Amino acid sequence: MINNSDGCGNAHAYPNDSELQRLAENCSQQVFPGGYFDGCSRVCVTDKYIMPLTEYEDLDSAVYGQIFPVLVLLACFANAAVALVLSKKHMITPTNVVLKYMAIAELLVGLVPLPWTLFFFSLGNFKETYRLELWWCYLRKYTMDVFPPVFHNIAMWLTVLLAAQRYVSISHPMHSRTACNVKNVRLATVVITIVSLLCGLPKSLDSDYETIHGWVYSGSSWEYASSCVMIHTGFLKTMGPMVFYNIYFWTRVIGFIIVPSFLLVLLNGLLIKGIRKAQRRKLRLLREKRAEEAQRQRDSNSTSLMLVAIVTIFLIVNLPQAIYICLLCVCETFSIKMSIFDGPFPTVFQLASNMIVMATYPINFGIYCFMSSSFRQTFSLIFCPGANQLQCDRRIIEPPSAVHSSRRSDICSHLVNVCTNSDEFMQVSHHCLHADYLTSERQSTQFTIVDKNEE
């Protein structure tokens, strides 16, 4: 380490001037946490804050640089596939519309931070902060702090909408036809998106940035800083930092954590209760030899079970993070000290929570495939058209069963001459898929995402 008489040297030139040391120590007694003494300009900075680009370099680089891109790749495939499948005309129902918008919101939760994590961690730029430029600071802010919480809030309330819509469908089926139709579901999604944007985007107005490359005295020691410096905007100064952050974070805690979490727990319990009631009704219909009504009830129950599974997974992975954020806001607002917020725990907890959330998106895709025969078939139509061409041909040439010959022949007899036409294949395949749906001897383990009561 080279000694230097001032604080303007490079990272290897440690400042050793006694007068500079005295000024730095005096400054450290005056500034609030986050302020610092600039060794080069010899100025005590009280209204700017050094923002470290990474706190635990090795941990962050391993998680965000290696694990996160893989999870995002899987999540992108899973959510894009879900959105594409549920966009098909024959799959459009109120439930599926909500599921599609949830998939898009969850896709953006992982996709938006990817440019920063790839650039800074995967490409190794965290080791070359001497090349830091101003645009790095803004890229990090918008891709890590501003937009991901907005999309997560949208996904949270869409999950509430999904549970509420399904509860109304099974508890008040007649009212659900008008109150929970596709148009109203889309309108509710627009409202959720607008409110989430209005509540989340003010975070983008709190700070501007500049860069620093030099020695600073912070706390009780000198350190060479090559980082972003956060500056409060005029808007924040006018409103007051304490007022602004209290309003922002408590709005997020109450409006996007506590209330939706409570509603999800409540609605999930009501859904489970409704499923049990519907199961008893299905058994009664079977005893009364009303097989067709019992089949419709079984399909409805299957859809409800699938949604309960999705909501439950969402709650399991999000509730710990919700509790953590609530505790953090309480401690910051009322100046309460808790040991769990000291040391590496907050960083490790946030990293683990974020990765677990990303890992659940492919799991949701697996739930759709496992519990929904129509989802599996439509997915196969889109991504494996050759296999479905053979399947369609086989369905046409195989003799139908005696029980279902009249149903299947009416629907598929006119397909003999067109199943080999590639331009018409997707339309024909949908007819064949519909023919499968009419088969009443499906096994009870087959499920459908499409609730015919919603159409």
Automatic annotation (TrEMBL):
The keyword Membrane applies. The chain crosses the membrane at residues 63-86, 98-126, 146-164, 185-205, 247-272, 305-336, 348-371. One of its GO terms (molecular function) is G protein-coupled peptide receptor activity. InterPro entries: 7TM_GPCR_serpentine_rcpt_Srw, GPCR1-related_rcpt, GPCR_Rhodpsn, GPCR_Rhodpsn_7TM. The keyword Glycoprotein does not apply. GO terms for cellular component: membrane. Keywords: Membrane, Transmembrane, Transmembrane helix. Residues 78-368 form the G-protein coupled receptors family 1 profile domain. SUPFAM superfamilies: Family A G protein-coupled receptor-like. It is found in: Membrane. PANTHER family: SEX PEPTIDE RECEPTOR, SEX PEPTIDE RECEPTOR-RELATED PROTEIN 2. This is G-protein coupled receptors family 1 profile domain-containing protein. It comes from Caenorhabditis nigoni. The lineage of its organism: Eukaryota, Metazoa, Ecdysozoa, Nematoda, Chromadorea. The gene is Cni-sprr-2.
